[in-house]
Amino acid sequence: MNFAGVTWYVLGVTHSTVKVSLIVILVTLPGLVVPPFGGVLIDRVDRRYLGIIIDAARAAVVLGTAALAYAGRLALWELYSMVLLLGVGFAIYWSTTNALIQELVPQEKLITANATVLIAVQGGMAAAGALVGLIYERAGLAGILGIDGTTYVISALCLLTLRQGYYAPREIHKAGLISPTPTIEAPPEMSEPTLVRTDEVERGISGVIADIAEGLIYLRQQPRVMALGLTYACLMAGVISANVLVVALAKDLLSAGATGYGYIEMGWAGGAILGGLLSGAVARRNPYGVLILALATLAVGHTLFPFVRLLAVAIAMNALFGFCRALGGVLTQTSILAAVPRRLMGRTQSAFAVIATILQVGMSYALGSFAEHFTLSIAFLLLGAIYGGGVVAALRVRALSIEAGKTPAAVV
Questions:
Q1: What is the dihedral of CA 151, 234, 287, 284, to 10 degrees?
Q2: In terms of Cα–Cα distance, which of 231, 221, 198 is closest to 355?
Q3: CA 347, CA 247: separation in Å to the nearest integer?
Q4: Residue 77 in contact with residue 246, Cβ under 8 Å?
Q5: pTM here?
Q6: DSSP state, 176?
């Protein structure tokens, strides 16, 4: 809801897709700097407490901006500043959440857990998509931001009640509270303890650098995990960057207004919920094939998207895209969680976040520029190309799996 409301507000004030693309750039730019250090933090402190602190900080920022908007004193630079600060939170929060899921959920239930999280997130997006246009037209940006800030407060309270006590990931590992399990990258005799060092944590900047180096060494030694990360990065870069073009599609080509844009976003969320519900059953027999087909559908579908002239067709296509995004996201994220040692998960997720951020920043600016200076159809063609990159990475995952003699079922 926040992103949709801010995007529509900036487009209405500036009439520039480049200024809209700046929103995407600002929200993703911290992902170039924050994740390497955030990943070390995630692997050192209690991930639940870290999530609570991030949610509380984001609530304060968004509710403060809502107050400025309500008072009619919100400047564009202040809105951009809010987006940038939220980007700092996003750069750590989702890696924290994914690592916490791996910490709490048994490996055999990871698909169900990831699908459940995706359904919850997309369910919220569906509700937001249905209401964002209505709320924006009646309460303006202040109403949108007020609701969004409240959701961060609720999220912090949910994390607070998740469990009792303080649990640092390294302490859990040393105490044996979580038993090591073989990964898809190594046979049972090469399980978690032999892949990572188990010495005492180094303090200070040297310790941080050593932890970052350890994570990079792990990724260099695990080509299949790296290919999975590239697949996920291409998927997420396409999903985030697409917002630059979808708002222009709704406004300029379909003349659907804020309400129509909300319906298109709701279609995406509805498709993603359905994809999350069906991900386990659909992908059980041939996960690699399903992943490749989902990414190929996103590539071809977005190339054809600007030729749509009916709102109902645009909603249906975006629902299909949401369905494919859910399948791709659940499969890749579950594979990563099953493969990576628990005490390295924060750094691994953060490394993939950096890759995704580089793609998102470059794609967002390129898409905004192409849409403004050329045509939307060319911009959507470029968007399809990033999903095409995901297809190539997914094919690499399958090739490495076949070479290693692993069955697809082992991935998920």
A1: 0
A2: 231
A3: 34
A4: no
A5: 0.69
A6: T
Residue 313: domain span: 2-184+205-410
Instruction: Measure the CA–CA gap between 197 and 193, rounded to whole angstroms.
Output: 7
d(CA 73, CA 77): 11
What's at 63, amino acid-wise? L
Q: Is residue 361 part of a domain?
A: yes
Structure tokens at 206: 């040297």
Output the CA–CA distances (angstroms, integers) from residue 84 to 29, 77, 79, 146, in the order listed.
Answer: 8, 10, 9, 18
148 three-state secondary structure: helix
Report which of 225, 165, 172 is spatially closest to residue 195, judged by C-alpha positions: 225
Domain assignment present for 191: no
Q: Is 71 helix (H, G, I), strand (E, B) or coil?
A: coil
Q: Are 193 and 341 in contact (CB under 8 A)?
A: no
What's the number of domains the chain is made of? 1
Residue 107 DSSP symbol: G
φ, ψ of residue 72 in degrees (nearest 5): 70, 25
Q: Which CATH number fits the domain that encloses residue 406?
A: 1.20.1250.20
Tens digits of pLDDT across the chain (412 residues) = 787 788 878 888 888 877 887 887 788 788 888 888 888 888 888 989 999 999 999 999 999 999 999 998 888 899 999 999 998 998 888 888 888 888 888 877 777 888 888 777 767 766 766 677 778 888 888 999 999 999 999 999 999 998 887 777 755 555 444 433 333 333 333 333 334 444 455 556 777 788 888 888 988 888 999 999 999 899 988 887 787 788 888 877 787 777 787 788 888 888 888 888 888 777 677 888 889 999 999 999 999 998 988 899 999 999 999 999 888 988 888 888 888 888 788 888 888 888 888 887 788 778 878 877 888 889 899 999 999 999 999 999 888 887 766 544 444 4
Report which DSSP code applies to 130.
H
CB atoms within 10 A of CB 342: 20
Structure tokens at 226: 């790296």
Q: Is 128 inside a domain boundary?
A: yes
